[in-house]
Amino acid sequence: MKHTPLIRLERVSKHYILENGDRYPALTDITLTIGQGEFAAIMGPSGSGKSTLMHILGALDTASSGCQFFRDRDISAYSPNQLAEIRNRDIGFVFQSFNLLPRTSVLKNVERPMVYGGIEKNERRQRALEMLALMKIADKAESMSNRLSGGQVQRVAIARALVMDPAIILADEPTGNLDTKTAHEIMEFIKELNKKGKTIVVITHEEDIARYAHRQIRLLDGRVVSDTHT
Length: 230
Ligand code: ADP
Ligand code: MG
Known about the structure:
The protein is an alpha/beta fold and 230 residues long. The chain contains seven helices and ten strands. 33% of the residues lie in helices and 29% in strands. The longest helix has 16 residues, at 180-195. The model has no long low-confidence stretch (mean pLDDT 95). Adenosine-5'-diphosphate binds at residues 16, 18, 24, 26, 44, 46-52.
């Protein structure tokens, strides 16, 4: 299937500057297109650059060299504010590093991206409840987020990622801390979202999780070593 390009990286490299001043090459010469409607898994051992690649795809971090396109726009030289606008409007994140606010209700957590998105109160509440219903967790709307199980947290995190109706969902190890059964439930939800047309990229190091995707991109030492469609 031919997809319209959504995100394109051309010869992207990323290095980190270490404390002793050395450059550490985390990604080297990555050329990659994520098409609209695709469901891709990024795989590779620990330290291979998966999270770094995800941060660049999500415009949370910028490349050290190379070009990046979002839809048909070259965003390589975008300012932090312009990148923040793309993130808020077009990208839904399910990352361990943006966890839910504890001692805050599930509903408030899911409403938060819409506060930044300038959406008015009644509509925020309505949309948040719809997304929680979609993720089959509307009954927990008034619960405190620190009272949820791991699987429930992930369903709420996905609901929150969806509320701005982003073009793409990026998920870094969304099943990382879950038991096998719950992990597969979460992947079933993600698969359904993809069937409805949402573009999805998930990082995983588990083969059976990666098989939900239609494409497996493998990294090793910051390079793409294979990119296969299934
Ligand atoms: P993965 O997600 O595949 O485990 P990462 O993208 O997190 O890999 O990291 C790739 C490499 O870059 C690792 O060797 C890691 O130690 C290094 N790295 C990641 N973030 C930083 C940072 N902020 N400063 C220095 N090195 C980093
Ligand atoms: Mg990682």
